[in-house]
Amino acid sequence: MSDDTLSSRIGLIRARMEQACMLAGRPSERVKLVAVSKFHPAAAVEEALKAGQNIFGENRVQEAKEKFPALREHWPDLRLHLIGSLQTNKALEACRLADVIESVDRPGLVDALSRAADRLGRLPDLFVQVNTGDEPQKSGVPRYEADDFIIRCKERFGGSLKGVMCIPPEDQDPTAHFAFLARLAHEHELIDCSMGMSADFETAIMQGATLVRVGTAIFGNRSKA
Ligand SMILES: *Cc1c(COP(=O)(O)O)cnc(C)c1O
User: Fold this and answer.
1) Is the CB of 150 under 6 A from ligand 1?
2) Which among 124, 134, 132 is positioned nearest to 96, based on CA atoms?
């Protein structure tokens, strides 16, 4: 039995991911762990880096900006994914900070990201977020618009459009949502499919996730204070 340290929790998640890959008959290199560090301090991120974790997810541009540029100086392999709903007026800062923006979900944001990329001469990899449950309060492009929106993003961003992402409704079995997203990625020849969180990442891997976003199971509960 290992003690309950951040490093042992990451080890446990990785072991469960491998087990799920094995059950799914998928090579384990095809599924990456995004450690979601929102509301946790830079010191916790550093501890995870020391445990060999190098991909992190943050919801808010401001918080990412406070934590990550300093960490990058010491950890050049660090990769930051922005996974939260993104305001248009934060697009420039998001393009500066992120390696991947997982939450592209509306034409206004597409325009803002294009302008930011022109200005900075750099564009992160982009994923389209799909609101697979068509929940009114949730960000993401509605299911019925997903095909058209992905095609438009491809025209605009070419190979920088790499994947799709979803957050299924909390009160439903996520399996059908994950299957829908995986099919969408496949149909549009996008390599990445970001789905699955602490409670359901194994199900997501069974359905074809290439990235799972795990927060609580690694860093513990988030105090929002
Ligand atoms: C917070 C968050 C996660 C991580 O959720 P946990 O249940 O803590 O693993 C994953 N994806 C997104 C988009 C999030 O906002």
Assistant:
1) no
2) 124
Q: Tell me, what's the pLDDT at 222? A: 79
Q: Is the pTM of this model over 0.85?
A: yes
Q: Which CATH number covers residue 72?
A: 3.20.20.10
Q: Does residue 161 register a pLDDT over 70?
A: yes
Domain span at 26: 6-219
**Ligand 1: residue whose CA is nearest its atom 7:** 198
Domain presence at residue 36:
yes
Enter the tokens of residue 141.
Answer: 């492009």
Q: What total number of domains does the chain contain?
A: 1
> Is there an atom of ligand 1 within 6 Å of 195 CB?
no
Residue 224 lies in a domain: no
Residue 173 lies in a domain: yes
User: What pLDDT, in 10s, does the model give residues 24-43?
Assistant: 999 999 999 999 999 999 99
Asked if residue 72 belongs to a domain, the reply is yes
- Convert the pLDDT of each residue in 63-86 to its tens digit: 999 999 999 999 999 999 999 999
